Amino acid sequence: MAKKLKITLTKSVIGQKPAKVATVRSLGLKKISSSVEQEDNPSVRGMIAAVAHLVKVEEIQ
Fold this sequence. Notes:
The protein is built from two helices and three strands, in the order βαβαβ. By secondary structure, it is α+β, with helices and mostly antiparallel strands. It is globular and about 35 Å long. The N and C termini lie close together (about 10 Å).
């Protein structure tokens, strides 16, 4: 069974570069404290790495 990641937006995207804002939006996050569950794969991990200072990540099964 594939692992999933729970991604939570912890900081605002106001003042961030447009590419960072687009990355947060493509992860499915809109507001602070909003959370989504994504499959654990290299593309999602890369997006998380790009906005690691804005999000909190937890592994779930």
